[in-house]
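Quick start: read one record
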Amino acid sequence: MSQAPQFIDSHAHIYGHEFAADFDAMLLRSDEAGVSQIIAVGADIETSRAACQLAEQHDNIWCAVGIHPHDAVRVTDKCFDVIREMAVGSRKTVAIGEIGLDFFRDRSPRPDQERVFRRFIRLARQLSLPVIVHDRDAHERVMRILREEKASEVGGVLHCFSGDLEMALECVDMGFYISIPGTVTFPANEALREVVRGIKIENLLIETDCPYLAPVPHRGKRNEPAYVRITAEKVAELKGLSLEDVGRITSLNTRRLFGIGREDQSAMIAYRIRNSLYLNITNRCSNHCSFCAKFDDFTVKGHFLKLLHEPNFSEVMGAIGNAGMFDEVVFCGYGEPLLRLDLVKAVAAELKKQGVKVRINTDGQANLVHGRNIVPELEGLVDCVSVSLNAPDAVTYARLCNTPFGEGGFNAVCDFLREAKGRIPKVVASAVTVPGVNVAAVRRLAESLGVEFREREYAEVG
């Protein structure tokens, strides 16, 4: 037996005076229409705070925090700090937004809009949160900035999409979703209907953008979350799907993008060995080491470390809890932590504020991965770095570690150690005692590089 269709309104502004008189009734109508969850999206500091408050008060409301491009000219460094604090401080914050460019009204100078847009993308990357992008008459610049600022690392959505099918396909190629508002019902908006026909349903979200842009037959009146069902009906018609199909698939897309309904994996993120707290922030690696135990089992000293998803800043900090009770916090886990450099820097900075010692266990390939020398970015944030050297020469290293960088991989590890020695208080080169490896030669190499050496037992991880 089929279930009643369920929907998520992925973009709503329900905190304003427009809903003050009938807020509870509005929520009841949305529930009756099958709207299971709502993303309340901030447009400035005041409304972002209001969105967070609503999210804390209602189980089915989540929030995003950001500043609309209309207000870009007034955005200061303090504004970025406040938005960051809200993003970190609320467990219900799922995105940075809405942010972007509006070249239609041009209420802020375009250079200011672009400056603020870039800063917010960088903040989103630091916190591992997706972005909600406002784009009006600024298609080319929005796409260029998203590419230049590597927004695809966190993904996001082009909300209230107004571009053409070619742009929509480019957004999807970058890992972004396309959000369809009620304007898809407007008789003259054939361009948006073409987008809906041409983009896979797996790449679409639906939204109201209420109180604005009410769909036909409510056009010109106040919009509200219940009307997202009307948008879903139009999408179903255009895609040749049932209403239940559209609700189910777009809701899944929204949950995936914003991490709604994820299982708590705190025990997989932060785990204790002796009196050190280890952080497991990715299961991805640069190398594919032949001796790595994770290819057989994701369990380390009784801790199961296979992540369900890569955690964001708030999840990591929540998993850490009281860091002061540990001797140190170690970025290690079952993956290469410096693949998530922005997250490492953000978490380390927060830990240093608390006076906590920070160590990173790394394969030393980060400079090649990121295409720049990243060691200076760790200075002042990290007390110790332990680098897996593992071999006395490039040939042995390539055989053991299966580096994707060829001989350059071994050279990069040595260069990383040399650079770290001058910037990080304690630098250690390590080697696993794999049979056939001349560990004494690895020790001599480490000493020649001027760093400490640690021998690790073949079965040891940590």
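The chain is about 40% helix and 20% strand.
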